[in-house]
Amino acid sequence: MKKGRSNQQLLDRFYNYMVVERRLSLNTIESYSRDLTKYLLFVESKKGRRFKDCSRIDLLIFLNTLKKKGLSSRSLSRMLSSIKTFYNFLISDGILTRNPFQDIQTPRIEQKLPSVLTLDEVDALINAPDTVTPIGMRDRTLLEVLYATGLRVSELVSLKMSNVNLEAGFVVLIGKGSKERVVPLGEEAVSWLKRYIKESRPELLSGKVNSYIFINRSGDSLSRQGFWKVIKKHCLNAGIVKKVSPHILRHSFATHILEGGADLRSIQIMLGHSDISTTQIYTHIAKDSLKKLHKKYHPRG
Asked: What is the set of active-site residues?
């Protein structure tokens, strides 16, 4: 290891590289930081060991310890990916000549089908807000836009006026690796956005200047936690008793357009998945739905 460069300094160089050269989002950097901070504590608990001195056995002990503490396969997989990425950086930085962990297999992840709403439940949820009030109008618009586009909640609350082209009817997003993604809005979402921006948003701003589209009661940008409260409130109002998450409309969007005939590649682009295997989980939901329809309506079902 280069003289004077501590483990923490190497991590700081890695984070700087990810921000400046890879241009990754703050959320992604924070995810790396959470994983690698745990790994750093483990490494330095071994009598001040340096990153370059760690062996396969060390890493397997670390992962096994986390597994015994109840960390899920998905979290272990992400942890391993973070460490491998960091060690590849150490190679590019001249600290190592090879990645000692490159061929360690990712833990098998059990795919869990995301919860989705039926079409009737989507209608009930979207119609739940009282659009007479500015907050109700905002909530209706949030739900319309999310169901129309399948955006991630972080993308939804981060939308700025510059991201939306209401005349052409689409939103433009910058994802991982500075990749641009264009997603159609649809007529209903465009209509509600126009109403909200013209009527309710100015009331919520109360003279404040804010480039974000969705505003809270104080005139500040809506947070992810704020949206979580919005969807829980209106699921309750709509009488939806199934377990909900902030991503439930994103999952419903993907499932419903797949059932409607959209191809996986188009859905992958709209959702912003880098790997189509991530999108393929929705085919399981669609197949299950088709089986139920077949059994219900086919004369020999």
From this structure: 152, 176, 247, 250, 273, 282
